[in-house]
Amino acid sequence: MKRIIVIFIFLLSGLGVFAQCSICTKTAQQLGDGPAHGMNSGIIYLAFIPLLVIGIVGYRWWKGEKAARK
């Protein structure tokens, strides 16, 4: 359980990353700094939930397979 908390904190600390494709980067450069930062935050926000769900499903699957082998 402690390992999960550490991983979760580590993932939250990386929220300052740039999550823009080449088209989004070009659009953000034309908008300026304020809207570009908001656009980047929106991309990260939209990507967080699906990645979290995939991580939870993968962890439960791994844990179930590990328990089945015992």
Automatic annotation (TrEMBL):
For this UniProt entry, which segments traverse the membrane? 43-62
Signal sequence extent: 1-19
Q: Which UniProt keywords apply?
A: Membrane, Signal, Transmembrane, Transmembrane helix
- The name on file for this protein is Uncharacterized protein
Q: Which organism is this entry from?
A: Niabella yanshanensis
Q: What is the lineage of its organism?
A: Bacteria, Pseudomonadati, Bacteroidota, Chitinophagia, Chitinophagales
